[in-house]
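Input:
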Amino acid sequence: MADRRRINGPPGGTRPPVYASLQESTTGAAQRAQRQRQPAELRKIFLQTGMIPTASGSSYLEFEPSASLAAARANPKSLIPPSSALKVACTVHGPKPLPRSAAFSPNLVLTTHVKYAPFAARKRRGHIRDASERDLGVHLETALRGAIIAERWPKSGLEITLTIIEAEDDRWWGDAPDSHDASWGLMNVLAGCITAASAAIADAHIDCLDLVSGGVAALVSDESNSASSIPRLMLDVDPAEHRSILSACVVAYMPARDEITEIWLKGDSSRAALEKGDDRSSHEALIDGAVDAARGANTVLSEAVRESITRSIAQA
Amino acid sequence: MASTAASAPAVPSLNLPPSQFARLQPHAYLLAHLSPPSASTQPSVRANGRAASQFRVTSANAGSLTHTNGSAVVRIGDTAAVCGVRAELLHTADIASWSVSNASDEEADSATQKGASQNADDDRNQVQDLHLLVPNLSLSTGCAPGLTPGAPPSTLAQSLSHEILSLLHTTNLVKADDLRIWYQPPNLESEEFRNAAEGMEVDSEQNGGPEPEIKAFWVLYIDIMIISWAGNAFDAAWSSVLAALRDTKLPKAWWDADNETILCSDDIADARKLSLRGLPISSSFCSFEADAAAGWRAVVIPSPEELKSQGQKEGSQQRWILADPDGYEEGLCEERALIVVDNEDGKTVILKMDKLGGWGMDSDDLRQLVDVSAERWQEMKQILDQC
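Output:
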């Protein structure tokens, strides 16, 4: 049944274009993007608040494009982008009174909506939120609920909407999906969403315990035969730059209280090459790595919030 | 209590800051700005500091999104629209009525050689019949407080999407020929081919001749996200569509007879840009009336003769036509106008004129608005050329 509230395409359906170079990829014409950063080096983050004046709080977050993407943009050769960088717009509406029909709530009622733009990913997305988008919304809500002081706004609602204008890839585009595969790009998107939402909440002057920021760490193995190789711990991974990701972890972290409000760990984290004398288990190392990444994001976040506050003081 | 009252004789201050006055009495606030007291030398400006026919600062930026064939971000003041164009393939085998309609098209094709205008009509039919342009506008991005995200598209979003679609069709902006993927069947009669194709299974029906045939069409999915909405969503959305289409590059595509599918080349040198017909620029206006309650009274619309005899003083009230209304002004105005113009060799061409919600604007006003829109065309052309 076609969606009658939207303009639908041809009734017979359309097919995404198939590139000829993909079929003869044995020639190795396309090179996999390589990570140019150190294992513990994070991507730069652009974060700005107050770009949407009709909302009580808003923010826009963008990750620095990877070296290969920057090169492809500067000197375009192929129509297939080597990787992509996250771009998220976030708005906060509220606190506003709950509708009359809603049940009494002594706390602030938080609702989060995460929606991919149809053109956000390599594969065209639908207009209706799918399960993964709803899942992201739930994860985001848990991450933020721990930070907001909800009892200060009884009977009120806070609506947080994130629009993902460009998402991260789940794997390098030339790779076929394999057994290690999961939606790794989703983890980066969640980390970005947490940081962006936190900035927008601060921009809306909602009381929080601390600024909560998101970080990602992953165990990756870049050698071709993944069975023998030992995976390494890396922070802020771009899935397009690695051959296989074994396990990844996102945390939402509040540095001032040293508290984690949300943790999401996927994959097999049983084997990892840690430095000698490091007796942490590898999933502990993974979580610590994600916390380090979140600490890095927090420096950008606090700077953006400072800008937001100075602007609102200047306006008052 | 008493002592404090005595020490501070509390005279309630009636001085409201302008921002609060604007919220409490929006109509009076805007009216006071537009009609300053005659004694003062203050010019009549809108509450946002613009003159009546002044548009907001506009900026455009194209080609910043990775996973699109063409994309653009347009900001008109505080309203921001992001548009992404994705091209997908529609095989003629997937078109239910293709073999039937194709036969009738053949006749039309020979006729279209005669004139360009008929060619344009033919293009429109094919683009429209096969749904090759699919614009969708989304307002549920949290862009304004009233709109619930996650809900199905509001009536406004639906009507905006539809208006964009109909404007794309009536202006014939995209050439159907840019979207067609042709295939020239090999000439099986020729000697060389016979030698080359020896042992290959050959469809005897193809012997007819090397008449080129359409194997597929590009379908352009044009998705517009209104990221921030502060009035005049249509102008922002339409200019973002225009900028994105100007940025759109379609890969070179061909029919691969062996695989019986369409293959594309990812080489950027092979890709070509869309060649658009003209540059239709839209401008929105609204009419602000001095008497807020006028819309509620029963009105007998006077005939034009009566109006002339009465003069403007009695028959109609004072009103201002505001270009590019922001969200605040849109809420106060009933009557709107939308004019889409293009410029062909220095001559202004009206492509669409929409006026609704009242009877205040007359033909003289509309003539003036067309002139304002023509100026706006020049301004927008510069902005779009630079992006």
